[in-house]
Amino acid sequence: xxxxxxxxxxxxxxxxxxxxxxxxxxxxxxxxxxxxxxxxxxxxxxxxxxxxxxxxxxxxxxxxxxxxxxxxxxxxxxxxxxxxxxxxxxxxxxxxxxxxxxxxxxxxxxxxxxxxxxxxxxxxxxxxxxxxxxxxxxxxxxxxxxxxxxxxxxxxxxxxxxxxxxxxxxxxxxxxxxxxxxxxxxxxxxxxxxxxxxxxxxxxxxxxxxxxxxxxxxxxxxxxxxxxxxxxxxxxxxxxxxxxxxxxxxxxxxxxxxxxxxxxxxxxxxxxxxxxxxxxxxxxxxxxxxxxxxxxxxxxxxxxxxxxxxxxxxxxxxxxxxxxxxxxxxxxxxxxxxxxxxxxxxxxxxxxxxxxxxxxx
Amino acid sequence: xxxxxxxxxxxxxxxxxxxxxxxxxxxxxxxxxxxxxxxxxxxxxxxxxxxxxxxxxxxxxxxxxxxxxxxxxxxxxxxxxxxxxxxxxxxxxxxxxxxxxxxxxxxxxxxxxxxxxxxxxxxxxxxxxxxxxxxxxxxxxxxxxxxxxxxxxxxxxxxxxxxxxxxxxxxxxxxxxxxxxxxxxxxxxxxxxxxxxxxxxxxxxxxxxxxxxxxxxxxxxxxxxxxxxxxxxxxxxxxxxxxxxxxxxxxxxxxxxxxxxxxxxxxxxxxxxxxxxxxxxxxxxxxxxxxxxxxxxxxxxxxxxxxxxxxxxxxxxxxxxxxxxxxxxxxxxxxxxxxxxxxxxxxxxxxxxxxxxxxxxxxxxxxxxxxxxxxxxxxxxxxxxxxxxxxxxxxxxxxxxxxxxxxxxxxxxxxxxxxxxxxxxxxxxxxxxxxxxxxxxxxxxxxxxxxxxxxxxxxxxxxxxxxxxxxxxxxxxxxxxxxxxxxxxxxxxxxxxxxxxxxxxxxxxxxxxxxxxxxxxxxxxxxxxxxxxxxxxxxxx
Lengths: 361, 541
What we know:
The complex is a heterodimer. Chain A has helices at residues 2-26, 48-61, 75-84, 99-107, 155-160, 190-203, 207-217, 225-234, 244-253, 282-292, 295-303, 322-327, 337-342, 344-357, and strands at residues 39-44, 66-70, 93-95, 111-112, 124-127, 130-133, 142-154, 181-184, 221-222, 239-243, 257-260, 266-276, 307-308, 332-333. Helix content of chain A is 43%, strand content 19%. Chain A is built from 14 helices and 14 strands. In chain A, strands 1, 2, 3, 4, 7, 8, 9, 10, 11, 12, 13 and 14 form a twelve-stranded mixed β-sheet that branches. A two-stranded antiparallel sheet of chain A has the order 5-6. Chain A has two domains: 35-146 and 269-324, Periplasmic binding protein-like II (D-Maltodextrin-Binding Protein, domain 2, 3-Layer(aba) Sandwich), CATH 3.40.190.10; 148-267 and 326-357, 3-Layer(aba) Sandwich (D-Maltodextrin-Binding Protein, domain 2). In chain A, strand 1, helix 2 (48-61) and strand 2 (66-70) form a beta-alpha-beta unit. By secondary structure, chain A is of the alpha/beta class. The mean pLDDT of chain B is 87. By secondary structure, chain B is mainly α. The two termini of chain B are 46 Å apart. Chain B folds into two domains: 6-42 and 329-541, MetI-like (MetI-like fold); 65-321, MetI-like fold, CATH 1.10.3720. In chain B, helix 13 crosses helix 24. Helices cover 75% and strands 1% of the residues of chain B. Chain B has helices at 9-42, 51-86, 92-104, 107-118, 123-130, 141-164, 169-177, 182-193, 195-211, 214-219, 226-234, 242-269, 285-313, 330-337, 340-369, 376-380, 382-385, 388-399, 413-437, 441-449, 454-483, 486-491, 499-508, 512-540, and strands spanning 403-404, 407-408. Classes of the chains: A alpha/beta, B mainly alpha. At the A-B interface, helix 1, strand 2, helix 3, helix 4 and helix 5 of A face helix 4, helix 10, helix 11, helix 15 and helix 18 of B.
């Protein structure tokens, strides 16, 4: 009897495996879209619903084409996957994550240049007082949406503990905020490191003093950048050093939170994308990059609070437009990969030490 | 005298299983590590000052966490196991089902559930504040041990109950007829008899605790452990890439030492039964009543975080309040509108679970019958301590060139099936091994002497004795398959988003209610699967 059961179980396993293969094959249709490419693989850590919209829109424009958007669980994991597969790349486009990540990917030889053909897309735009380069000088990557560094805060928690709303990065060193501020690990998360670099841009040589003061108020560094927003939304901590979009999404959801664009300065944080070197479907990949930079998708992104980079696609008075967001902001700094690189060792050593000794003093 | 080779189908099975382990675990990991080892020696930068002190401190933290978790989990599981298995408590199987829920829930959902209750803004924290009691922060060792015990205790409980089912009733009858009380019999006869199961449970809890990444990431605060040291420095933007290698090698040494000690202990406690199994239960109304009260109490404590999850799944936003702001069924409508993750999870459940059980039976058989090959057992434990993401990356690197016709292996569902099978193997293998340790060798020898082939002896003598272990292995296998996350994140091929990935994405975006709804659906599916497996088991009987 037991033997028969075993045979049945193994049969089920084999049958399901064959079915699984069939299910996967049916995902890749045989239709042709002009250049013989029918499938596009995009690695993206973008919000799942926006990823669905992106997929549906591109498929509607290219009948017979299937877009597969895969999220390997965070920007850093996504680039690790890209790196692991470099001998036989599986992705055609890598989407989301900031230029800091893309700069690193160029050094690793993972990307291929492509100059977008999307009408109206400019390779640099004014943001606040500075100019922001949207395209890498050699077209390795392109920025498709923007956010800003700063501080998400929970109004209910601040009220409960009778704490003032901070105005600047320097305010975060105030000892009243002890154990009420969280941040992701700057050595792991580009979100956190952008904030660290923003402080360098604002305060120069004085920045390490600021880091030290803020470090004293942090109970720990989180290994995951997205969790910090959830924890502050729920009221676990009063503040998170992070980015504007996740904070504004939580606010839109109805959580008692807000976002501080620090008065002493904020850095532009970008969402970029690039063509993967050795992509199996390069033509579709290029069309996809153009599609993301189309007016239609810029506006679609705005629905999910991704600030469009193309000027004139949306009414500047709308709250998600770059013009509205930057209207009352203090100094705005463009990302400075050179400054980040120059201070890489300082950041590694300082925060390496902070993280290793957290909880021991 | 020259030994002549006698062919056995088992040899082929051993070879296939070992090859599977070698190809999809050892080879990729060795490749990944040797590639990185050269980097350690090539690097001119010294390791950060005080690195080794840090390593020791993190090791101390990890061991403290694992010992505390193991201690609490076993201390709770042993008495509960006795209550459920021995006292004929009404609805015992329902209690067992309820207590298994933490096991079915993805670990990060449990961590959030613990935060909903005991976090800085948690419901219980607020309640105690009203009473004037300030609960200490949950972020750190305390929170870690709570979530890990929540997850590990049911596992230990299931192993211990499986053990209790193997205690021959005549032993207890003999003890009682010699005038020992029922309680004394449990302490002096039953407890020592099931000590391999208790040790196995302790080992599993210990290793699971050591290898847990999700818990420490969400609730660990500044309490640093080895697993997150590896994870954070492996998936990194500016971290030190040497750290995961050094930590990884160190963990291997630690787990080998541990396994060595445990296998010695297991040998000391190995007891074979030579008589027919029959389970002894006790009809003690007073004890039953007290047991019932205790079971209800423990079940309530263990269920509290999951009640919070169910509430969350029907809620909108829940922040610093007694209940969510509003109630809705929308989260379920949305979760169930996307049928693909549910279909994918069921397919994986039906493919990976049988692979796990068959591989485990082959390995356990091999370790029992081929002493020379027992060293391989040490390697089957690797997936416990190596984070899933590292196993995934090592597979990607090793098999990036392999094509399956139209699709590459690393972009197919097979890589996912392989990775989950490898990652979850030790959980199932250890249960089957515990089952094998109870088998009476003399029966198999008798079968041989009557002319049975080893395959025939296996099916007619060994397999029937393994039944309790196999059905437990199927349940644990299913649970471990559906909750696998860290390899799946890296390896899920196009169109293969599973339920646990769905949950992870929505937790990541802060949509806890939708994630909770899918979590509840997941628990329901595994519950149904377990029920089907149980009814099949009964039919077989």
